[in-house]
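## Example pair
The file below holds two records. Each record gives the amino-acid sequence first, followed by its structure token line.
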Amino acid sequence: MGRVLAIDYGTKRTGIAVTDPLRIIATPLETVASAGLLTFLVDYAKKETVDEFVVGMPKTLLNEDSAIAPLVRKFVETLKKTFPDKAVHLADERFTSSMAMRAMIDGGMKKKDRQQKGNVDKISATIILQSFLEAKR
């Protein structure tokens, strides 16, 4: 069984989280520059078996696409072309950044580390992935 990889896509940085091979635990993996995201994913998929992708879809409080949603949809199309044999799921990512910040505070992360936006991105991806896993159970 392959891993599930979650993506919290941003205009500058993208947070990535991944499951263990048994798909039990979601773990933060990396924050990469969005411009190099596909290269990172291709390289990662050469080293590890990835069966599915989960991409956070930014929505407003009214459940409408946010301003960045068209960029995410464009990325999803590119992802599907790059990995035609892999399932790509969209997941609501509302509130994940605030949930990530709360998790970092509750976990005792130092303020200096919380201010690094890359940490928020990869923890947000982890929250997206954990929610996806829980919904499938």
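Second record, same layout:
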Amino acid sequence: MQTRAKAMGHQIHPMLVAFPLGLLGTGVIFDIVFLITGRTGFEIAAAYTIGAGVIGGLLAALFGAIDAASIPSRTRAKRIGLLHGLGNVAALALFAISWVLREQATAWHASTLALILSFVGIVVLAGTAWLGGELVERLGIGVAPDADVNSPSSLSSQRRGLASH
């Protein structure tokens, strides 16, 4: 099935998700480097990249919602798309709260809670990124006109209509 949200023949949502994933992941890396080195520049860099990542995530979510509306109801793809979207909303909320906590602190200091929220957020994003890959790579959502919206999980022993031996 093809998506309606395209630019120059390509899906917009996958083009946009690279930015929030990269920015939020980089923010977590900066947090880790700060914890190791104690250099406040990394703490500030983490706050800025997390803020930009949340904004980018909201934009990507808009186009993801447009794509999700095109998925047929009562299919495995619709269920995975819902988990993918809700998980991303939860991850963005975790990062947004982490950012607000940093913004309210002196010199963008990351409290223990802000760090925990970011670390949990990146784990959630890893899971939702896998689900997004499952939608595209396994189910063909947005890329294959003949998408198999009920294809089994890539973790199962079945492969696109073929049972394993």
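Notes on the second record: The chain has four helices and two strands. Strands lie at 6-7, 10-11.
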